[in-house]
Amino acid sequence: MNKAKGYLDMELLRFTTAGSVDDGKSTLIGRLLYDSKAIFEDQMEILEETSKQRGEEGINLALLTDGLRSEREQGITIDVAYRYFATPKRKFIIADTPGHIQYTRNMVTGASTANLAILLVDARHGVIEQTKRHAFIASLLQIPHIAVCINKMDLVDYKEDAFENIKTVFRDFSSKLEIQDIHFIPISALNGDNVVDRSKNMKWYEGVTLMHLLENIHIGSDHNHVDCRFPVQYVIRPQSKKFPDYRGYSGRVEGGIFKKGDNITVLPSGFKTKIKSIDTFEESIDEAYSPMSVCMTLEDNIDISRGDMLVRENNQPNISKEIDIMICWMNEKKLILRGKYSIRHTTQTARCIINEVKYKIDINSLHRNEKDKEIGLNDIGRILIKTTSPLFFDSYRRNRNTGSIILVDEATNETVAAGMII
Prior knowledge:
Layout: H1 2-9, E1 12-18, H2 25-35, H3 41-53, H4 66-73, E2 81-86, E3 91-96, H5 104-111, E4 116-122, H6 129-140, E5 145-151, H7 160-174, E6 181-186, H8 210-216, E7 229-231, E8 234-236, E9 248-252, E10 257-259, E11 263-267, E12 272-279, E13 284-285, E14 287-289, E15 293-298, E16 309-311, E17 318-329, E18 340-345, E19 348-361, E20 368-369, E21 380-393, E22 404-408, E23 415-421
Parallel strand pairs: 1-3, 1-4, 4-5, 5-6
Antiparallel strand pairs: 2-3, 7-16, 8-9, 9-15, 10-14, 11-12, 11-16, 12-13, 12-15, 17-21, 17-23, 18-19, 18-22, 19-20, 19-21, 22-23
């Protein structure tokens, strides 16, 4: 029981991988899982057998994600493949996203919750258009940490010059983007150099391995612990003999730190009260912080329902019906100017109208296109919307949780766009 509790309490790192088709993304994921002993015996047997049948020497680690490729060949739509594994230090969720331009929406989906993005660069080809595109999306999504893995170093004889040249080019390009923390690692996913174990072929490299970076990078400050935001998801009223008068408000802390006894304000009503208790499934606790899911009880009996938000009196979010958003369009039906959509934001649901398309981003040159404002599948653009009821939001740059929205087609209930509030 203690061991299981210890596993549950381990810090979770979410990371996404991005790279061109031939950059060795599948092999890198396979190598990470293989060298960190995260592959089960039956998986290993299948890997060995399949590699043998295909006449390949040793084990083809890329086959770990081959099931996804064969599914795509059968005509099944796949958004993002998630892989889970753990080491004694951390738990990990890998969002394996396709890298083609036509799968921009898939990368946005997988990267939206990531703490770190691994950008793969082929050591032979250097920084290509695809690399710049992925770096731009990582910057747009405000992913706090980027690991640029220069792969296939074995094919350039492990030369330091090849690594340094790519590093210089990428740094020049990324200086124009909003990327805070970049790490460069020369690797060979095929041979395992600097993935989990240090490379004997690149003694000139004095940095850490990819696994060491994943296990030790500081992500505690990635969450916003300044702006207190608690969107109410559900009102809990057991009305049992044990809890005859219990009324709790459950949800996930999307920012800041809430403590028992804190003065808070309820939006949109503006009523003020104090936190009476903060409860989890197992016990009452003294404080809750992002991204914990808890249930709060309040000193006063106020009418609160799903979609309301608990905040600090002197630190409130923006409250508005008119919202400026950067969106990635995810549907084959194009955006309709003056069209009506349903908007989902934290636990709020409202209706909205698209008032204006400001510009579209040219995903290749990264320039703003103010002439062609037609937004279709995989396009990224900036729009202005007006909602039927006010939303309580922060800018996406300040808080990824309260600064993100999705748009839904009311007729089909399909998600048509994901957006970042500016």
